[in-house]
Amino acid sequence: MLTAKTKILCIIGHPIDHSLSVIMHNAAIQKIELDYRYIAFNVFPNDLSNAIDGLKSLNIKGASITIPHKISVMKYLDIIEPMAEMIGAINTIKNEDGILIGRNTDGEGFLKSVKESGYNIKNKKVVLFGAGGAARACAFYLAKEVDKITIINRSDARMNDLISKLNSNYSISIKGINLSKKEEIKKEIADSDMLVNTTPVGMYPKVNVSPVNPLWLHPNLFVVDLIYSPIHTKLLQDASSIGCNVLSGVGMLINQGIIAFEWWTGFSPDKKLMKQVVIAELEKLK
């Protein structure tokens, strides 16, 4: 029951209609009977500063941050946890008595989902599409265990900034290729073990597009798409059709959400329930 004492959590992004975080978190909240509610706010980039001020003035206890705010939101926070500072992006905010603390649970959630799939990333060569907030988090956690990361991105400036940050913290091989250099990308994928899409290309409702030419894929590639709506993106369908092992973004969504939930509330949610409600909602979109 919603009362004057109910604590509010939220997600901030633009667009936000695709997000399943509201369903996932509220199911977990109701299961353990916490006096919390989790709601969504569609916040345009120009309104982000006001929205973050609102977290304090409305005493919102915590917030998930999604596309396109994961980098730009950092300058409005009071404290950034060290790993998030290093990554250069956050996806979770906790309000501690008016002090807004930023954290990144994306990378940890991503790595956990990959390991849960049974894939061993040790000493692998990875091609990473994108250089935004989610890409940064994934790259920093991948760099702890893989041998090589190649970043593919449209913007050289953002790509080079990520490469610089990774080189400052890890000694593995890291390179970048502009998205326009098709032949270079094709050769890099041919020599890689794993491909990760961190871009929104293929996200619902534009489900018939892929960031990767299907002719560039090969059966020995492990293909991960951080998109979870749809659960089987065009990229994953193309990869599956030639025998690749694939992984959707559902596991990462749930794992990063659990980390955030525990940080906000001090309670551990029911992971199985969270996955069930997410899958059920995704089935409705087919």
TrEMBL record:
Residues 118-199 form the Quinate/shikimate 5-dehydrogenase/glutamyl-tRNA reductase domain. GO terms for biological process: amino acid biosynthetic process; aromatic amino acid family biosynthetic process; chorismate biosynthetic process; shikimate metabolic process. CDD domains: NAD_bind_Shikimate_DH. Its EC number is 1.1.1.25. Residues 11-93 form the Shikimate dehydrogenase substrate binding N-terminal domain. The keyword NADP applies. The keyword NADP applies. Signal peptide: none annotated. Residues 249-278 form the SDH C-terminal domain. InterPro entries: Aminoacid_DH-like_N_sf, NAD(P)-bd_dom_sf, SDH_C, Shikimate_DH, Shikimate_DH-bd_N, Shikimate_DH_fam, Shikm_DH/Glu-tRNA_Rdtase. The active site is at residue 70. Pathway: Metabolic intermediate biosynthesis; chorismate biosynthesis; chorismate from D-erythrose 4-phosphate and phosphoenolpyruvate: step 4/7. It catalyses: shikimate + NADP(+) = 3-dehydroshikimate + NADPH + H(+). Pfam families: SDH_C (PF18317), Shikimate_DH (PF01488), Shikimate_dh_N (PF08501). Keywords: Amino-acid biosynthesis, Aromatic amino acid biosynthesis, NADP, Oxidoreductase. NCBIfam families: aroE (TIGR00507), PRK00258.2-2 (NF001314), PRK00258.3-3 (NF001319). Involved in the biosynthesis of the chorismate, which leads to the biosynthesis of aromatic amino acids. Catalyzes the reversible NADPH linked reduction of 3-dehydroshikimate (DHSA) to yield shikimate (SA). Belongs to the shikimate dehydrogenase family. This is Shikimate dehydrogenase (NADP(+)). It comes from Promethearchaeum syntrophicum.
